């Protein structure tokens, strides 16, 4: 049978290639390589039917077949296709006697793709490699684990230096020890070889467990392909490394502790020597070996202890239990026993390391901590309640406050505003919040001039953190008219003490200014009325003296000329007339003195109280000598006032104390002074007859008398003059008195400034 008939008869793709490179294709090869209708008339160059990479891989086997030897190669005809096994065999020479070769193409059965998908579902990477270990096909998990795409992996050698393959001890993998190399060389499966690789794409290291499965085609002695299966165990390696480090630290801690430290074999047997256990329990080596240590545990706790220990040794989990352990003196002590398994590099338990901790102090500390936490919880709840109350109160205060209150941040933007501020300025709270405060309500002066931001006291407080009070300013209503206001701007601070904004408390002063204007008018009217009254009193008193002098003169003439010449009743009438003239003259003099208080324009001066009292003593000297009274004082201070008026004030008060004395004791007056802020507080105390409480205020009114003139002389003007003098100096006067126990007059006078 000639080659053409053979090509047509076989179902597998076949190519007949002559020594000059011409190729004849059977229908199956035509469909596989060109996708067209099978035709044998055309004889294209065989290399043009394949990709350059595949043609290069087939060139060696083809040359061997033309030389009379059969050779094979595994190739991937196109990306994503399964592996194709190509067999190159010698063919019968053509009519001209030239050498020919048959290329037989056989694709890897589809179960390989299924197997790749299955492995991918398990998270295992799979790479199919040719005899030269170049990668022919990979699954999705392989690309994920190796950090390279399928295109990047295609044709890459297992020992590509970019992977930097290393052993767990950090030493590099020699090329001939790589699992795929070993499997291809020996034809034996190589299982679970740990390997570290560097992933260039993500710049990190991964740990793999690699298994290499060689594939030997039927009828051959050496493998043509190797399937490498690898699992990413990086997380497990890292966890085991952390665990080993943790166990080593724990063992060091156990060895350094003063607690009872013991160790046991992997099966849980308790073997000597255990020096810490012997010292605490007093057991000998023979008594605590194997399960004998359980005899030192309280009988009621042994069953639970045994159960926990058996569960720990079976599950290889840490052992933890609390029980009572007998001390060498026979006392049972509450203990906490804990142990951990020490795992070797092979994942096997090497030993158990455990401790027994005396829980007596711990229990006490725990109870103390419970009590402390309970107390802290109560305090936190109380504090939380206080904060809630403060917050609620603050909210109510902001809502109920009559003054407008709003807050600003560092930009001058309104962060909150209470309803009073919104009503005052005609905006809603929502409109004010988030708006620049200065541009919204503080942009112009009252006269319409623009208010620069840098001149604004509120903005200045935000800048320098200084509290400011402004008594007269305007803010602008939403309807466009100015609202007169007074405000206080206070800085706010954050936790670090840095200025974070400001709070402004604003008061609408419209009514206050209207009331102040009305008050100024009333004061002006009162002052004018008082001036008119004083002027009237002065003029009236002055004008009354002239007719009084005339009446007094003629009365004296009548007395001198006719006294004793008329009947006794006429003499009595003349005496009444003289007495009335004297009283009238005294009354007019007192009225003139009352009217003159404060009319002098003499400037106030520094006046020493001690000197004034010495002068007042001279004024009442006759009264003191006549009644056997005494005057004492301790007044080292100086006041600011008119000396003549102050002397009259002190003289009147001292005279009253001497005049209104009790019959059973000599009169005594004491004067004291003390500094009280910007004033000097003066007291004038007597031991006289006292004044009933209902008269404590009335005695300072003009013409007020509490006694008959026959008992105590006077016109009822003295204390009224005293009050007017004190008030003229900016002070006040008041009385404390109990009938029969004397009186104390209190008065305040401005302190004199210290001389420079």
Automatic annotation (TrEMBL):
Histidine kinase domain segment(s): 539-753
Organism encoding this protein: Deinococcus seoulensis
Enzyme Commission number: 2.7.13.3
Keywords: Kinase, Phosphoprotein, Transferase
Limits of the PAS domain: 108-169, 397-465
Superkingdom per UniProt: Bacteria
PANTHER family recorded: PAC DOMAIN-CONTAINING PROTEIN (PTHR43304:SF1), PHYTOCHROME-LIKE PROTEIN CPH1 (PTHR43304)
InterPro entries: HATPase_C_sf (IPR036890), HATPase_dom (IPR003594), His_kinase_dom (IPR005467), HisK_dim/P_dom (IPR003661), HisK_dim/P_sf (IPR036097), PAC (IPR001610), PAS (IPR000014), PAS-assoc_C (IPR000700)
Catalytic activities: ATP + protein L-histidine = ADP + protein N-phospho-L-histidine
GO molecular function: kinase activity
Domain called PAC: residue spans: 319-371, 468-521
Top EC group: transferase
Protein name: histidine kinase
Family annotation (PROSITE patterns): HIS_KIN, PAC, PAS
UniProt xrefs under Pfam families: HATPase_c (PF02518), HisKA (PF00512), PAS (PF00989), PAS_3 (PF08447), PAS_4 (PF08448)
């Amino acid at each position: 049978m000639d080659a053409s008939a053979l090509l047509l008869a076989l179902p597998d793709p076949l190519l007949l290639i002559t020594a000059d490179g011409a190729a004849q294709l059977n229908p199956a090869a035509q469909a596989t390589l060109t996708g067209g209708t099978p035709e044998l008339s055309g004889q294209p160059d065989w290399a043009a039917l394949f990709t350059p990479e595949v043609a290069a891989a087939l060139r060696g086997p083809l040359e061997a077949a033309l030389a009379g030897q059969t050779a094979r190669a595994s190739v991937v005809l196109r990306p994503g296709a399964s592996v194709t096994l190509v067999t190159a065999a010698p063919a019968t020479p053509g009519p001209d006697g030239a050498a020919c070769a048959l290329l037989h193409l056989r694709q890897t059965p589809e179960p390989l793709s299924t197997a790749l998908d299955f492995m991918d579902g398990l998270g295992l990477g799979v790479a199919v490699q040719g005899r030269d270990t170049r990668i022919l096909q990979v699954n999705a998990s392989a690309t994920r684990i190796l950090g390279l795409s399928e295109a990047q992996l295609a044709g890459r050698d297992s020992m590509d230096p970019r992977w930097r393959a290393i052993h767990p001890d950090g030493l590099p993998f020699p090329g001939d020890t790589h699992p795929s190399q070993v499997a291809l060389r020996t034809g034996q499966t190589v299982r679970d070889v740990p390997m570290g690789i560097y992933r260039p794409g993500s710049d990190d290291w991964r740990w793999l467990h690699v298994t290499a499965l060689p594939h030997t085609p039927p009828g051959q002695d050496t493998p043509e392909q190797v399937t490498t299966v690898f699992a990413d165990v990086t997380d497990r390696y890292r966890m085991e490394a952390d665990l080993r480090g943790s166990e080593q630290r724990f063992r060091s801690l156990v060895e350094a502790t003063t607690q009872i430290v013991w160790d046991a074999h992997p099966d849980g047997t308790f073997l000597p020597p255990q020096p810490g256990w012997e010292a605490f329990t007093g057991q000998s080596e023979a008594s605590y070996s194997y399960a004998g240590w359980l005899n030192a545990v309280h009988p009621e706790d042994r069953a639970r202890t045994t159960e926990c220990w058996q569960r720990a040794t079976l599950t290889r989990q840490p052992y933890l239990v609390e029980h009572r352990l007998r001390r060498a003196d026979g006392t049972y002590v509450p203990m906490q026993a804990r142990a951990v398994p020490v795992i070797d590099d092979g994942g096997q338990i090497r030993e158990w390391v455990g401790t027994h901790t005396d829980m007596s102090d711990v229990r006490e500390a725990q109870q103390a901590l419970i009590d402390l936490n309970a107390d802290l919880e109560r305090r936190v709840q109380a504090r939380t309640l206080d904060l809630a109350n403060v917050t609620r109160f603050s909210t109510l205060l902001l809502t109920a406050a009559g003054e407008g209150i709003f807050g600003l941040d560092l930009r001058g933007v309104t962060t909150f505003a209470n309803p009073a501020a919104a009503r005052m300025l005609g905006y809603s709270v929502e409109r004010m919040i988030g708006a620049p405060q200065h541009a919204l309500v503080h942009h112009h002066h009252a006269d319409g001039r623009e208010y620069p931001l840098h001149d604004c006291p509120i903005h200045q407080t935000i800048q320098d953190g200084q509290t400011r009070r402004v008594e007269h300013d305007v803010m602008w209503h939403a309807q466009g008219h100015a609202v007169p206001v007074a405000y206080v701007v206070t800085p706010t601070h954050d936790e670090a003490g840095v200025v974070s904004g400001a709070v402004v408390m604003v008061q609408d002063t419209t009514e206050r200014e209207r009331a102040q204007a009305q008050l100024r008018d009333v004061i002006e009217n009162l002052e004018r009325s008082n001036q008119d009254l004083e002027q009237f009193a002065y003029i009236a008193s002055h004008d009354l003296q002239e007719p009084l002098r005339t009446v007094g003169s003629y009365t004296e003439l009548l007395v001198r000329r006719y006294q004793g010449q008329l009947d006794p009743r006429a003499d009595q009438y003349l005496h009444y007339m003289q007495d009335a003239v004297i009283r009238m003259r005294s009354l007019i003099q007192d009225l003139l003195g009352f009217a003159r208080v404060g009319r002098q324009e003499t400037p106030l001066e520094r006046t020493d109280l001690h000197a004034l009292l010495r002068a007042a003593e001279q004024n009442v000297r006759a009264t003191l000598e006549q009644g056997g009274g005494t005057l004492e004082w301790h007044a080292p201070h100086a006041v600011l006032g008119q000396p003549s008026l102050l002397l009259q004030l002190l003289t009147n008060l001292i005279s009253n104390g001497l005049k209104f004395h009790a019959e059973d004791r000599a009169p005594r007056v004491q004067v004291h002074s003390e500094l009280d802020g910007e004033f000097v507080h003066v007291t004038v105390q007597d031991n006289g007859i006292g004044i009933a409480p209902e008269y404590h205020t009335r005695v300072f009114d003009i013409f007020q008398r509490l006694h008959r003139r026959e008992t105590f002389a006077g016109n009822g003007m003295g204390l009224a003059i005293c009050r007017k003098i004190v008030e003229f100096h900016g002070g006040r006067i008041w009385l404390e008195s109990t009938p029969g126990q004397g009186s104390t007059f209190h008065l305040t006078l401005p302190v004199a400034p210290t001389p420079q």
